[in-house]
TrEMBL record:
<feature type="domain" description="NmrA-like">
    <location>
        <begin position="2"/>
        <end position="207"/>
    </location>
</feature>
<dbReference type="InterPro" id="IPR051604">
    <property type="entry name" value="Ergot_Alk_Oxidoreductase"/>
</dbReference>
<protein>
    <submittedName>
        <fullName>SDR family oxidoreductase</fullName>
    </submittedName>
</protein>
<dbReference type="InterPro" id="IPR036291">
    <property type="entry name" value="NAD(P)-bd_dom_sf"/>
</dbReference>
<dbReference type="Pfam" id="PF05368">
    <property type="entry name" value="NmrA"/>
</dbReference>
<dbReference type="InterPro" id="IPR008030">
    <property type="entry name" value="NmrA-like"/>
</dbReference>
Length: 282
C-alpha cells in the first residue's frame, strides 16, 4: 500500500489519477474530507501537525510519497521542516520500506528559507535509516496559473527574469517519476534533478501564453508583491528565486524524466495543449 501525501495538490492529483488508472493500491492523505471525496479514491483525513493522524494514515503502508508546501515561518524557521521530520519519524515507526520525497531544485544550506527547508529535510531523511529516493524539480509550469509568485500581473508576464532561461517542468511528469519510484525497485538512495524538455526565456513563454512580457527591476517587483499582500519572508524567497533564474541557475536540462519514465518530458507547448483551460492569463 502506498500513501500519497499532498494528494489534492499539483503533483498529488496527477499521481492519484495515475495510480487509480493503473489499479495500484494506494491511499490519499487529505486535510479536508470533502476534497478527499472529490478525489474518488481511498483516502484518510490527517494533518502533518497532528502526529496521531499520520500514524493512523500509515497503518498498513509500505511506501510513502512525502510532499507538502511551506507555511508561514515561526521564529525564523519554516514549519515544513518539523512537519516532515515528524512524518519521517512516523514512517520509521511504521516500518515503511521506502520514502520518496518531493524536494526543490538542488537545495542547499545557504539557500533562502523555503528552499533551505528542503535541504534540511533531505539530510534528516538520509540519516533516518529508511530507504529513500528524492525528486528535485525545477519550477512548475502550473505556477504560471495557480501560484502566488507574481507570474501574472494584469494580463502581463512580469518579473525580474532578465534573460535567464528556466527548464520548467509539468507536474504531470513529476508525478510520473514518483510513480516509478513508488511502485518498483529502482532509485533507492538516488536523487533525481527533474526538468522539462527545454529551457526557455520568460519572453518566449509570454509569447506562447499570448501575453505581453515585462522585465521588472527587482525593487519594483518587490513593491508589487508586497502590495498584493504577500508576506515579507515570501517576497524575499521569491526575489532570491528570481535572481537565481535571471543568472541561469535553473537553465540546465536533465535526462532524469526520460531515464525514469522511458519518455521525454512535456514541452511547454504540450503542457498548454494538455490543459486547455490554461489558454490565457487573467
Amino acid at each position: 500500500m502506498i500513501l500519497v501525501t499532498g494528494a489534492t495538490g499539483t503533483i498529488g492529483r496527477h499521481l492519484v489519477r495515475a495510480f487509480a488508472d493503473a489499479g495500484t493500491p494506494f491511499r490519499a492523505l487529505v486535510r479536508d474530507e470533502a476534497k478527499g471525496k472529490e478525489l474518488g479514491c481511498d483516502f484518510v483525513v490527517g494533518d502533518f501537525d497532528q502526529p496521531a493522524s499520520i500514524a493512523a494514515a500509515l497503518d498498513g503502508v509500505d511506501r510513502l510519497l512525502l510532499n507538502s508546501g511551506g507555511a508561514l515561518p515561526v521564529a525564523g524557521r519554516q514549519p515544513m521542516v518539523q512537519q516532515q521530520f515528524a512524518v519521517i519519524d512516523a514512517a520509521r515507526a511504521a516500518e515503511v520500506s521506502r520514502v520518496v520525497k518531493v524536494s526543490a531544485w538542488r537545495p542547499a544550506p545557504d539557500a533562502k528559507l523555503s528552499v533551505r527547508a528542503h535541504w534540511e529535510i533531505e539530510q534528516y531523511l538520509k540519516e533516518s535509516g529508511l530507504e529513500w529516493s528524492i525528486l528535485q524539480p525545477t519550477g512548475y509550469m502550473q505556477n504560471f496559473f495557480t501560484g502566488e509568485g507574481g507570474f501574472a500581473r494584469s494580463g502581463t508576464l512580469a518579473g525580474p527574469y532578465g534573460e535567464g532561461r528556466v527548464a520548467y517542468i509539468d507536474a504531470y511528469d513529476i508525478a510520473a517519476c514518483a510513480a516509478v519510484l513508488l511502485t518498483g525497485s529502482r532509485g533507492a538512495g538516488m536523487t533525481y534533478a527533474l526538468t522539462g524538455a527545454e529551457a526557455l526565456m520568460h519572453e518566449e513563454i509570454a509569447t506562447k501564453l499570448g501575453v505581453p512580457f515585462r522585465d521588472l527591476p527587482p525593487e519594483e517587483a518587490a513593491r508589487d508583491l508586497r502590495a498584493r499582500g504577500l508576506p515579507g519572508w515570501f517576497v524575499e524567497d521569491l526575489l532570491w528565486l528570481y535572481a537565481d533564474m535571471a543568472s541561469g541557475g535553473l537553465s540546465e536540462v536533465t535526462m532524469a524524466v526520460g531515464d525514469l519514465t522511458g519518455r521525454a518530458p512535456r514541452t511547454f507547448d504540450e503542457f498548454l495543449a494538455a490543459n486547455e483551460a490554461f489558454t490565457s492569463m487573467s
